[in-house]
């Protein structure tokens, strides 16, 4: 409805009558059909696990030899042909009063492809209401026993039934939403890619590092923003002495290159196999030197997961020298095994550990004695 006064622009609105619907389904697999027929007599059942659709819990009763509710029994003791009977039950303690809902319940025998067999689909629609007892929503003879046993739907003594439930609330009016917002496709962040391109292009670089016979151009502002050590060296008291070039000793060229990559992109390059262990060791040393705590922890984590006989001693020495408590503990735990310790003692790394960190050896021996 719209109205206008004084020749102004009329107001406009719209609404719709809608039925809110919640749907769900449960698969009941009968494994060992013939055995269930022997164990459960006519009128006896077993049930599925409870499952939820909407705010309610449900379960399915399975009568392999039929139920007196669905199979007629005559005065002479005879009855209709044996059938597989199924009941869909709403569990009463899950019912919420004051909610007007209608349930559409459908039971389907499935074929080998998992699709409903049209002849064996049963449907019931009813309103939900509170009750002191569980509410049976759908009771049916799904299929005669002889027909099932002769059909392809029973394979290896197994068959599957699907229960679909749709819960529909009372119709209600809702205002139509305003005009849809226009979504703009926003690309993924490109900062890392652009910073890596800047590093590789060397455009605007104002400092060059000489490392292990190789030269690496970089940008003072980027290095200073990421590392307090670089900030002190490039903009502090050492600014004049460094000029446009700086020599770096004690760091491998490939490790320094990986260090710059991390500074510019905040990511660590991937290395394969044993090279990964070696690079992680060298990068940890460089990260500690330039106060890059995140890079140091990344390397520490990688080394914790790659401890073996060949690397345990050198990694333990690094952990002690560069204050990596988690890495130290991981190495010590590995060496507490007598077999591991004996194998590590035969490596060159163990001699390096003995020379550089004798305190660690005493600590290791003391703990082994205490075991």
From TrEMBL:
Family annotation (InterPro entries): BACK_BPM_SPOP, BPM1-6, BTB/POZ_dom, MATH/TRAF_dom, SKP1/BTB/POZ_sf, TRAF-like
UniProt cross-references to SUPFAM superfamilies, sorted A to Z: POZ domain (SSF54695), TRAF domain-like (SSF49599)
Species name: Oryza punctata (Red rice)
Family to which the UniProt record says this protein belongs: Belongs to the Tdpoz family.
Lineage: Eukaryota, Viridiplantae, Streptophyta, Embryophyta, Tracheophyta
GO biological process, one term: protein ubiquitination
Domain BTB: 205-272
Pfam families linked: BACK_BPM_SPOP (PF24570), BTB (PF00651), MATH_2 (PF22486)
PROSITE patterns the UniProt entry points to: BTB (PS50097), MATH (PS50144)
Pathway the protein takes part in: Protein modification; protein ubiquitination
Protein name: BTB domain-containing protein
Residue stretches making up the MATH domain: 23-165
């Amino acid at each position: 409805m719209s109205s206008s006064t004084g020749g102004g622009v009329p107001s406009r609105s719209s609404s719709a009558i809608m039925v809110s619907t919640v749907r769900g389904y449960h698969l009941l697999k009968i494994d060992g059909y013939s055995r269930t027929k022997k164990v459960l007599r006519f009128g006896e059942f077993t049930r599925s696990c409870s499952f939820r659709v909407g705010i309610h819990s449900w379960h399915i009763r399975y009568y392999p030899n039929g139920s007196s509710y669905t199979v007629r029994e005559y005065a002479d003791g005879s009855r209709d042909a044996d059938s597989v009977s199924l009941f869909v039950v709403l569990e009463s303690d899950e019912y919420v009063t004051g909610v007007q809902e209608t349930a559409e319940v459908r039971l389907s025998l499935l074929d080998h492809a998992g699709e409903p067999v049209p002849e064996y689909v049963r449907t019931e629609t009813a309103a939900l209401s509170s009750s002191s007892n569980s509410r049976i929503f759908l009771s049916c003879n799904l299929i005669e026993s002889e027909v099932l046993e002769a059909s392809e739907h029973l394979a290896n003594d197994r068959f599957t039934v699907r229960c679909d439930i749709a819960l529909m609330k009372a119709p209600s009016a809702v205002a139509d939403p305003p005009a849809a917002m226009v979504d703009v496709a926003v690309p993924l962040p490109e900062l890392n890619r652009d910073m890596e391109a800047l590093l590789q292009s060397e455009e605007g670089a104002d400092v060059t590092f000489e490392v292990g016979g190789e030269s690496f151009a970089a940008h003072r502002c980027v290095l200073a923003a990421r590392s307090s050590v670089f900030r002190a060296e490039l903009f502090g008291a050492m600014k004049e002495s460094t000029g446009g070039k700086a020599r770096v000793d004690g760091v491998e060229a490939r490790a320094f290159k990986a260090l710059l990559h991390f500074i510019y992109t905040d990511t660590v390059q991937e290395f394969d196999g044993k090279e990964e262990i070696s690079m992680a060791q060298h990068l940890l040393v460089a990260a500690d030197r330039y106060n890059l705590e995140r890079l140091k922890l990344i390397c520490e984590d990688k080394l914790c997961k790659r401890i073996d006989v060949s690397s345990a001693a050198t990694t333990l020495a690094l952990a002690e020298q560069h204050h990596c408590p988690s890495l130290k503990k991981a190495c010590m735990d590995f060496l507490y095994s007598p077999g591991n310790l004996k194998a590590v003692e035969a490596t060159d790394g163990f001699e390096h550990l003995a020379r550089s960190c004798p305190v660690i050896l005493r600590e290791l021996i003391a703990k082994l004695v205490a075991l």
